[in-house]
Design a protein that fits this description.
Blueprint (H helix, E strand, L loop, with lengths): L1 H32 L4 H37 L2 H12 L15
Length: 103
């Protein structure tokens, strides 16, 4: 009987620390490897930097197009002649057009 009480006392004393250790291990695991853990954060940051580079490239392309549109709206003769040559693939009499690669 004394042995049973001694075992019960030891087990009773270990239940709370065991539950606490299991809780800490559970949350610790998901802090590192979970869906929103540190590893997922690192991969999200890497993906975000790639997306930011793509955004900057798109912004610069948009600004370039907006400048060209503004020149067309202002009636800039050089821009209008360039567009005419690009779209109609022709020129004035006696002119030779050399096609360029698109930039």
């Amino acid at each position: 009987m004394a042995m049973r009480r001694s075992v019960a006392r030891i087990v009773g004393a270990l239940i709370v620390p065991a539950i606490c250790a299991a809780t800490v291990a559970y949350f610790g695991y998901f802090t590192v490897w979970g869906e929103r853990g540190l590893i997922a954060l690192a991969s999200a940051r890497a993906g975000l930097s790639g997306e930011r580079q793509q955004l900057e490239a798109l912004k610069s392309a948009r600004e370039r197009l907006q400048r060209r549109i503004a020149l067309v709206h202002r009636g800039d003769p050089d821009m209008l002649q360039e567009l005419r040559r690009d779209q109609l693939l022709g020129g004035d009499t006696g002119e030779v057009a050399v096609p360029r690669r698109a930039q």
